[in-house]
Amino acid sequence: LPLSALVLGDLNTHYGWWDPLCTTTSPDAENFINWIKAQRLELINTLGIGTFFCTNMSRESVLVL
Questions:
Q1: Does residue 6 belong to any structural domain of this protein?
Q2: Is residue 50 part of a domain?
Q3: What is the pTM of this model?
Q4: Which has the least CB within 10 A, 4, 22, 39, 49?
Q5: pLDDT in tens, the chain (65 residues)
Q6: Which InterPro entries does this one have (predicted)?
Q7: What's the number of domains the chain is made of?
Q8: Is residue 26 assigned to a domain?
């Protein structure tokens, strides 16, 4: 990636790093985290602040990074 890049995505990946209240980990989360580290990227979300909510959910979810 270029030195200045913004990577966005609706990744639907659950993991405690960006969602401290997460009780399940997505199967591909570790691969994604390894890619983030290999690219020397930083998460700029406010950790624990939901990015997705649906009326049938009990709380917001952090899916969009």
A1: no
A2: no
A3: 0.66
A4: 4
A5: 677 888 887 777 888 888 888 888 889 889 999 998 999 888 887 777 777 666 776 666 666 55
A6: Endo/exonu/phosph_ase_sf (IPR036691)
A7: 1
A8: yes
